[in-house]
Amino acid sequence: MFTSFAVVAGSFVLFGCDNDRNSDMICKNNPELCEDLHKDSWCRYEKGDLIRQRFILKTTPDPTGKQIYDQLRFLEVYSKCIELASGVQHKVNVQRTNDRLRAFGVSVQNLEELQESTKGSQDPYLAYYHWSRLDDAKSLSVLINAEKEGRISDPELLSKLAIYYLKTDAARAKKLYLDVLGMVDEKHLDPDWLLGLATASRTLGDLEGSYLYSRANIVLTSQSVNEAQMLALLAGDKTKAESLDSEAEQLAKAVISGNFAGSAIEKRLRSEPATERAKTEPVAPSTSH
After folding, report:
1. Confidence (pLDDT) at 95
2. Where is this region: Disordered (predicted)?
3. Nearest Cα to 126, choosing from 106, 154, 103?
4. 237 and 283 in contact (C-beta within 8 Å)?
5. Is 143 inside any structural domain?
6. Domain coverage including residue 199
7. How high is the pLDDT of residue 13?
8. Number of domains within the chain
9. Contacts 24+ apart (CB under 8 A), 128-136
10. What is the mean pLDDT of the chain?
11. End position of a domain, from candidates 69, 92, 117
12. What is the Cα Rg of the chain in Å?
């Protein structure tokens, strides 16, 4: 019992240290977690991530779907990396090449077994994995139902569903993108979500919204833009463009500060369709959803 506790306690210290030392210590105390992996320094980051995730699963009595999903991802990445490394012939130590080939073969088998054991799972993370990686339509249905029932709070999963809805339900895609903007700060923000909002708005006939979200993306990424094409969204209305540019600055600031959720601009974007803008500002071209 003392040994087990020491290993677990030590892990909390080591997770903050150098990754190689971290994984080396785990392997030393838990050799069964590493014996199927290759021995040399190729793919060390990918191998380290996999080792640490295996240790988390070992020391977690009832692993969550997210933890198993992470295991699938790390195993995928490791397998792809060692596949490439196995094609590099070592002229002096041939056994190193053979060791990588062995590790690649085992990783493929392990991945297939884990995929099979999680097939049909009702967990949103595992359903997302089987839909996105293996094109499983039933898993997509599980994911959609979980979102509708409010059982998904991870911005990554919600943003992936938003991409799906861009082709089938632009209004729902817009809602999900606004949801995820309220869940993150600058560190976890994907500026492409704003482009998704721009696409959804354009599909809904809200060209002002499309301009606004596109401009906010530009503010965050400093990407170059064709201003003539941007202005064309507003039928050349420079006064409206100036107003929306200011709003885009507010939106970008709220998002990167992590204060978008519950903010005045969030409420305005959720409740104020383009038709309402036209009523309050007659100079703007009339648009509707």
Report:
1. 81
2. 267-289
3. 154
4. yes
5. no
6. 178-280
7. 34
8. 2
9. 128/69, 128/157, 128/160, 129/69, 129/72, 129/73, 132/160, 133/72, 133/76
10. 87
11. 117
12. 24
